[in-house]
Amino acid sequence: MNPSKVLGFAVAVSVVFGVICGLVWALLAPAEHFVVVEPGVGSALTGESLHRFDSLALLVCGALVGGIVVPVAVWAWVRFRGPVLYLGLLVGAALGSAAMLGVGILVAGFIHSRPDDPPPGSVVALAPGMETPLILLVQPLVASLVVLLLVAMNPHDNLRFTVDSELDVDAHLGEHSFESDRA
After folding, report:
1. Which of 47, 58, 170, 172 has the most CB atoms lying inside 10 A of its own CB?
2. At a CB cut-off of 8 Å and minimum separation 6, what does 127 contact?
3. How far separated are the first and last CA of the chain, in Å rounded?
4. What is the per-residue pLDDT for 49?
5. Residue 73: which residues within 8 A CB-CB, separation 6 or more?
6. Whole-angstrom distance, CA of residue 85 vs CA of residue 7
């Protein structure tokens, strides 16, 4: 198979997972409620500013899940393990994280639409947003750590499970083995 197809597959899986996580985040992330003090000026209700952390924490959880599940799922594609697959996972994790954030903010904006000109004294719900762009680094870093752990736990130099080739090597050695040298 062409390396660009392997790269594209890993990127596509990560981006699709990111879009799904973004949709789930948009449905779960709480809106922040404000009291309109005067036209165009609002004051946060007591305890409502904590929802900014809640939405960020939910986004980090989605990025953590994406950074763990996608590399483990793609690692099962034994034939194409290697640098190209890792590059696809890394690029895909970055794009998937951006897709998760973009789709989540867009859908949350539709769910919690802002009124045009609310009267003073009314309570308005604002859609959750992104507090820091550092959220985009969580999924690629976790995906890299998971791939590092998977590579470290693999006992084969070529990152594949090669039972048949090991049996062929033993057949070529024949009767001669390290055990017979000791005797």
Report:
1. 58
2. 31, 105, 108, 109, 111, 112, 113, 114
3. 48
4. 65
5. 13
6. 6
pLDDT in tens, 58-108: 999 999 999 999 999 888 887 778 888 889 999 999 999 999 999 999 999
Contacts of 15 (CB under 8 A, 6+ apart): 92, 95, 96, 99
Q: Do residues 51 and 129 make contact, with C-beta atoms less than 8 angstroms apart? A: no
Judged on CB neighbours under 10 Å (0-12, 13-18, 19+), 59 is buried
Confidence category of residue 48, pLDDT binned at 50, 70, 90: low
User: Distances from the Cα of 105 to the Cαs of 46, 129, 165, in angstroms?
Assistant: 24, 6, 50
Question: Largest Cα–Cα distance of the chain, in whole Å?
Answer: 95
Tokens of 11: 């990127």
Tell me: pLDDT of 175 over 80. Answer: no
Phi-psi region of 91 (alpha: psi -120 to 50; beta: other; left: phi over 0): alpha
> Residue 127 corresponds to which tokens in the numbers above?
């859609």
| 113 C-beta neighbours (distance < 10 Å), count | 11
pTM equals 0.77
The number of residues making up the chain comes to 183
